[in-house]
Amino acid sequence: MSKPPVEDADCPEEITWQGKWITAKRRGRWEYVARARGIRAAVILPIDSDPEHGDHVILVEQYRVPLGRNCLELPAGLIGDDDSAPGEDPLATARRELEEETGYSAANWHIAGEFYSSPGMVSESFTLLVARDLTKVGEGGGTDVENITVHRVPLANFAAAIEAFRAQRLAIDTRLLALLGPMLLAR
């Protein structure tokens, strides 16, 4: 009598390659990647309320090498990627990255939870933080090597704005589905 196949989850995890930021792994038949050193991400959903013109979301556009083009995204940053801030928590990372990338600071923060962006391929998780009561405090644009463009997009016309960005050949980050969801369900 033959034995039942070994479940992938019961197989040992193997590291097949490791760089400074990414680790390629194998467990059973599955190949996937992880952030090196347990690094996670903080993703920010910045909502700029305007009593006269309605709510807007602050998005960032930057070139992404794996895609070979610019991508429209929520502002985000890696937790623990900077040796000068060991033990930094998601909120501290989010505050720093929001100002660095967009030029906004927020007076009100809400942690929406931990999420996984592509769980069949990447083990990375991110903490989603909603930022409200925004104040423009600088230009944004990221660090010297990021070259980020900031977009303030009205939520009332969000779907049309996304289509306009697509027409410009921008890639659209999957996390923007959180804002498109209600509109997709209404169809």
Keywords summarizing the entry:
187 residues, alpha+beta, Nucleoside Triphosphate Pyrophosphohydrolase, 3 helices, 11 strands, 42% strand
Broad CATH class: Alpha Beta
Multimeric organization = single chain
**CATH fold-level name:** Nucleoside Triphosphate Pyrophosphohydrolase
Please identify which CATH superfamily we are dealing with. Answer: Nucleoside Triphosphate Pyrophosphohydrolase
CATH architecture: Alpha-Beta Complex
- Report the strand count: 11
Strand content: 35-45%
If you had to describe this structure to a student in words, what would you say it looks like?
The protein has 187 residues and is of the alpha+beta class. It has one domain: Nucleoside Triphosphate Pyrophosphohydrolase (Alpha-Beta Complex), CATH 3.90.79. Strands 4, 5, 6, 7, 8, 9, 10 and 11 form an eight-stranded mixed beta sheet that branches. Strands 1-2-3 form a three-stranded antiparallel beta sheet, with no helix packed on it. Strand 2 and strand 3 form a beta hairpin. The longest helix has 13 residues. The protein is globular, with a radius of gyration of 19 Å.
